[in-house]
């Protein structure tokens, strides 16, 4: 499979993850796992990236494992861009599980690769990850710096969705710093971009932050409303982590409103989910929340239990911010219980952590990395300036060479123009000769056709005289006379059809409207075909009407339409059968129908029989010829008169042709 097509397929599937049900998403994941076994190289990388992303929020460890596989494969095929992308997937998975130090170490590797190869879009994402890690560690100043660096890079690419994701992080940090006005501005911007791009996960996260925004301003009803909107959007995602986090937010609102038992149930439910997922960061944060709510209801035993549990886990995992909060809870608890020695001990720990969080070693490391990055950018700008000067010198030399090539090009173009002019002149001459030849051909066909009509009409007149004397002759004479009648009619019809086809194709066919009696018109046309029908013992059934049947149309065109259909009906009717002719007149239109009892027309042939030189499978019953011109002329004439024609038929049941035409002066 083409890697580019596969790339588009996987990212289409990735967008499908945000709008499909759990069962559909699981089916896609299973399908990708099956493809993984047989894929190689770039195809396999794209599958691993998609699987790593799909498990990011539901199973961080699984997401990390797929990221590791992608990283190993990237190094194997020496694809540095995929290495950086793989490290980002691994960093995000470690962050979701709460392994902050490992996440930071992985992110710094990604930064080194991005700096070396100018992968600035991946770098913008990596800087946002570093900001998230620092925020989780309680280093808000370091986090804000990296969020703004990511925001600036994203803005330079002109990709709104990338910029909005960084803006969301800035808004969240402003909420922590209680700077609500800038937080609201960034939230509004991010929500607008996420909605335009139908980025469901981003919309869910923004509603959580809106809930935090109102919660921080003591507006619990508005906070709960936005948290519930976040839950509504979560129905489109398989995000157990997001669901549990939102539940802890709602529990905080319950706690604020004094619904302590409801809040405790909410925290415990969320804690179960965090434990299943293995998110250490959220587990410790939930221990802190439970300790605080039990402190509010004066349950010292439970407060002590959860605070000690949170402190032990935070120290083990190096979660400085949670360690600080646990020390604060224990300080307040022991102070309240008059255990002053222990209270002072936890207070000292709390103050030490407050100071150390803003001066951590890792923060210094990332600062040095950023300075190095900025210095490298400056060096590249200087190199670009030097290259520009060198390029100007080279341009002067190239201009001289270009002038020579330009002169040569002008000469060649002039020669080509002369050649094209001569060719066009010759083509016009040839085309003119062809037009003259074609005109002469058409004139010859027209002249021959008109000249042929005269002898055929004379033969027709002589046949009529012989018919008057046929009663005195023997049967063999009558049979010969019948055949001569048929052949003469065929010849005359063919000549007339050739004239009509030529006139219709040339656009010279003129419509001249007349008022005439349709009843009288049909009677005359039927009478003119009686001898031809008699040659095959066919009866023409027509019942004249006494009602007014005046219509307005081109009588010559209507005659050609009627004659060709009736001629066909006689041609394809067996000996001794009957043909029925009928008509009707309404206010602004009229119609007539001709029905025979021949072999009929197959359904699949009905649309074809009106095309030139197209005939059905049925054959004439008296060895007559069929050239496919008659019904093609009928169709063209009906269209010119703005009417319609349809054929109702099936094999062995005969055919009925119905013509409907307007009757007006337009």
Can you lay out the helices and strands and say which pair or pack?
Layout: H1 3-17, H2 22-38, H3 41-54, H4 60-76, H5 80-97, H6 100-117, H7 120-136, H8 140-157, H9 160-176, H10 180-196, H11 200-216, H12 220-234, H13 240-256, H14 260-277, H15 280-296, H16 300-317, H17 320-336, H18 340-356, H19 361-468, H20 475-506, E1 514-517, H21 518-528, H22 530-534, E2 539-542, E3 550-553, H23 555-572, E4 578-585, E5 589-595, H24 630-640, E6 644-649, E7 655-662
Parallel strand pairs: 2-4
Antiparallel strand pairs: 1-3, 4-5, 5-7, 6-7
Helix pairs in contact: 1-3, 2-3, 3-4, 3-5, 4-5, 5-6, 5-7, 6-7, 7-8, 7-9, 8-9, 9-10, 9-11, 10-11, 11-12, 11-13, 12-13, 13-14, 13-15, 14-15, 15-16, 15-17, 16-17, 17-18, 19-20, 20-24, 21-23, 23-24
Could you please describe the fold and organization of this structure?
The chain is 73% helix and 6% strand. It has 666 residues and is α+β, with helices and mostly antiparallel strands. The protein has a domain at 475-662: 2-Layer Sandwich (Heat Shock Protein 90), CATH 3.30.565. Helix 10 packs antiparallel against helix 11 and helix 20 (475-506) packs across helix 24 (630-640). The protein is elongated. Residues 1-22 have low confidence and may be disordered.
């Amino acid at each position: 499979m083409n890697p580019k097509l596969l790339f588009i397929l996987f990212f289409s599937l990735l967008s499908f993850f945000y709008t499909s049900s759990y069962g559909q998403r699981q089916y896609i994941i299973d399908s990708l796992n099956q493809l993984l076994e047989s894929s190689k190289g770039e195809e396999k990388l794209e599958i691993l990236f998609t699987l790593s992303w799909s498990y990011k929020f539901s199973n961080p460890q699984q997401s990390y494992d797929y990221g590791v596989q992608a990283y190993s494969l990237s190094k194997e095929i020496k694809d540095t861009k995929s290495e950086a992308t793989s490290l980002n997937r691994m960093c995000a998975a470690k962050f979701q599980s709460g392994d902050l130090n490992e996440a930071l170490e992985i992110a710094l590797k990604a930064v080194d690769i991005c700096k070396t190869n100018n992968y600035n879009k991946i770098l913008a994402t990596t800087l946002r990850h570093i900001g998230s890690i620092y925020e989780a560690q309680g280093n808000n100043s370091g986090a804000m710096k990296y969020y703004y660096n990511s925001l600036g890079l994203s803005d330079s690419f002109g990709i709104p969705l990338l910029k909005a994701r960084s803006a969301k992080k800035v808004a969240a940090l402003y909420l922590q710093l209680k700077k609500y006005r800038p937080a609201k501005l960034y939230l509004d911007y991010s929500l607008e971009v996420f909605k335009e791009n139908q980025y469901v996960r981003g919309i869910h996260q923004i509603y959580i932050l809106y809930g935090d925004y109102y919660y921080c301003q003591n507006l619990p009803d508005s906070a709960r409303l936005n948290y519930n909107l976040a839950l509504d959007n979560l129905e489109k995602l398989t995000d157990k982590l997001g669901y549990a986090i939102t539940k802890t937010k709602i529990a905080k609102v319950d706690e604020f409103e004094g619904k302590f038992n409801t809040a405790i149930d909410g925290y415990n439910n969320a804690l179960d989910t965090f434990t299943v997922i293995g998110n250490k960061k959220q587990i410790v944060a939930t221990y802190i929340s439970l300790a605080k709510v039990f402190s509010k209801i004066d349950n010292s035993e439970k407060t002590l239990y959860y605070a000690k549990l949170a402190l032990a886990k935070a120290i083990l995992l190096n979660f400085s911010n949670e360690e600080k909060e646990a020390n604060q809870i224990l300080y307040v608890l022991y102070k309240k219980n008059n255990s002053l020695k222990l209270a002072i001990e936890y207070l000292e720990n709390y103050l030490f952590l407050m100071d150390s969080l803003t001066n951590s070693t890792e923060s210094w490391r990332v600062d040095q990395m950023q300075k190095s990055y900025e210095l490298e950018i400056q060096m590249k700008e200087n190199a670009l300036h030097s290259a520009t000067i060198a390029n100007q010198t080279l341009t002067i030399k190239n201009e001289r060479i270009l002038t020579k090539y330009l002169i040569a090009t002008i000469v060649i173009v002039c020669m080509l123009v002369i050649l094209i002019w001569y060719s066009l002149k010759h083509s016009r001459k040839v085309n003119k000769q062809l037009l003259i030849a074609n005109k002469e051909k058409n004139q010859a066909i027209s002249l021959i056709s008109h000249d042929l009509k005269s002898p055929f009409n004379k033969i027709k007149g002589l046949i009529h005289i012989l018919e008057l004397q046929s009663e005195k002759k023997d049967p063999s004479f009558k049979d010969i006379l019948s055949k001569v009648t048929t052949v003469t009619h065929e010849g005359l019809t063919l000549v007339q059809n050739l004239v009509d086809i030529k006139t219709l194709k040339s656009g010279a066919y003129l419509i001249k409207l007349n008022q005439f009696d349709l009843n009288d018109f049909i009677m005359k046309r039927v009478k003119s075909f009686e001898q031809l029908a008699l040659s095959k013992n066919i009866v023409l059934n027509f019942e004249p009407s006494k009602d007014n049947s005046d219509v307005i149309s081109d009588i010559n065109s209507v005659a050609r339409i009627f004659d060709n259909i009736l001629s066909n009906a006689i041609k394809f009717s067996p000996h001794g059968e009957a043909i029925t002719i009928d008509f009707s007149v309404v206010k602004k239109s009229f119609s007539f129908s001709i029905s025979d009892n021949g072999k009929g027309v197959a359904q699949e042939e009905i649309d074809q029989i009106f095309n030139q030189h197209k005939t059905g499978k049925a054959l004439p019953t008296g060895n007559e010829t069929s050239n496919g011109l008659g019904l093609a002329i009928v169709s063209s004439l009906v269209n010119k008169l703005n009417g319609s024609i349809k054929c109702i038929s099936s094999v062995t049941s005969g055919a009925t042709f119905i013509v409907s035409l307007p009757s007006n002066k337009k």
